[in-house]
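Practice problem: predict the structure.
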Amino acid sequence: MKYSKETSSLLKDAGLDVKDVGSSEAQIAFLTDRIRSLTEHVKVHKKDVHSKHGLVKLVSQRKKLLKYLRKTKLDSYENLIKKLSIRGM
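Answer:
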């Protein structure tokens, strides 16, 4: 299956295999990219309540995936946090 160039580059930046799009690590990388773009949108369009609501939902979904990853694969969790620069450790 062919993936877009954005998907491939996003996975390479996160240090993941290009074909591994269903893993928790890949999903967190995708959500992080969407969260960053929506954050910029919300900064410009302050009254866009629907986008703010979507942003909160995405952050919540990523939080759940990070919690799962921390429980199951701690080393992978720490590497992903550093590569995506999500949280300060």
